[in-house]
Amino acid sequence: MSLPDEPAREIRPLRRPPDARVPIPGAKSLTNRALVVAALAAGRTRLSNVLLSDDTLVMVEALRRLGVGVEVDRAAQAMCIDGCGGELSVRGAVLDARGAGTVARFLTAVVALGSGRFVIDGSLRMRQRPIQDLVDALNALGAHARAPSGCPPVVVEACGLRGGRAVVRGEVSSQFLSGLLLAAPYAQTDVELVVDGALVGAPYVEMTLAVMAAFGVAVERDDLRRFRVLAGQRYRARDYVVEPDASSAAYFFAAAAVTGGRVEVPGLTAGSVQGDARFVDVLEQMGCRATRSAGALAVEGPAVLRAVDVDLAAMSDQTMTLAALAPFADGATRIRGVAHIRHQESDRLAATAAELRRLGQDVEEFADGLRVSPQPVRPVTVATYDDHRMAMAFALVGLRVPGIRIAGPGCVSKTFPDFFDRLELLRAAG
After folding, report:
1. Which of these is catalytic: 133, 317, 386, 387?
2. In the annotation, is 309 catalytic?
3. How far is the C-alpha of 172 from the C-alpha of 8, rounded, in Å?
4. How far apart are the C-alpha atoms of 276 and 212, rounded to whole Å?
5. pLDDT digits over 327-350, tens only?
6. Which residues contact 41 (CB under 8 A, 6 or more apart)?
7. Cα(76)–Cα(383) distance, rounded to whole angstroms?
8. Helices marked H in 41-131 — which ranges?
9. Which of 152, 159, 179, 354 is placed for a possible disulfide with 106 were both Cys, Cβ 3.0 to 4.6 Å?
10. Taking the CA of residue 162 as centre, how many other CA atoms within 13 Å lie in the half-sphere pointing to its CB?
């Protein structure tokens, strides 16, 4: 999270194209899913290569308030969780999700399994982020939840989750469906979940299913439209290694693209369960060369980036990344399918369009995306709206153009606290 008087950070252009191998910390989305599953399992789970960031530590604190024992070993980048076996030991709690959507959405579903009065709240921005669809689906499964504003705070008068059938809208956030799936094994009867409308962020649901399977719970599915979780299944404690974060790795692949260099990320492979690992496919369309091996992904940038017209619905966190590359392409870049990112840490489409215009770009903003026609880049201090992805994406511009500064750089602590230090590895490898 950025601090009120935090100075802007200047990003200096690289003197030469990098040839770098950049380790990336564990995935935030996998870390928080694994924490929830481990908390519900019976026994001790050890998670290694976890991400230690604002969002994951907020999840740790919230689970502790629910009576779950969590030990954090920063030096080893590991956590040990003593699961509750699906039976929360506390009879009510107030949970502060701060700005973490996974914490607010996942734990709203989890606390419905307990007994007592639970309140899930968060930051000012979290109080503007929708959650009513999740509340409605939980109530259809026998919960007693309410969110008077349609956003947090949410109050859950918990007495266990009955189960049954619920319809959940898919076009706002995949986290609603993921939260329901994570809690579903501990409902009293089978749970059937039906998706209404287009499902945004489908790879994140696939990720949820993969984590559930890794801990011993099977989900029957009809594509990504209908899901059935049989009652009586339980998560089994285990040792689990978290993959490197593909969303974070994408900034370094994009750095190779914008500078004409080469960046390799060890431990991330083409077989990753993370949808953002497919961002390298987009970079290939832009003229980059991608190398996929059993132990790493690597990207080498071209002399000139090609403009693309792509639907990023399956990897919407990369909207800002692609937008930051667009000023250096050989024509107009069109981004589609990401209307839902208006409801995230910031209105990401409006924020991205505004900052691109300040950089001198010709931008058309649509309900579901942007069209960026490249113009000479002006040096500016980029506003980041306390949004970590705005800060990391627009830092890429500064690797190529002098005079770029990032306001409120501390916001990267949400998911990648040492992002700027790792970005400097590119300078050392040039």
Report:
1. 317
2. no
3. 33
4. 20
5. 999 999 999 999 999 989 899 999
6. 81, 83, 85, 215, 234, 235, 236, 237
7. 34
8. 54-65, 101-111
9. 179
10. 11
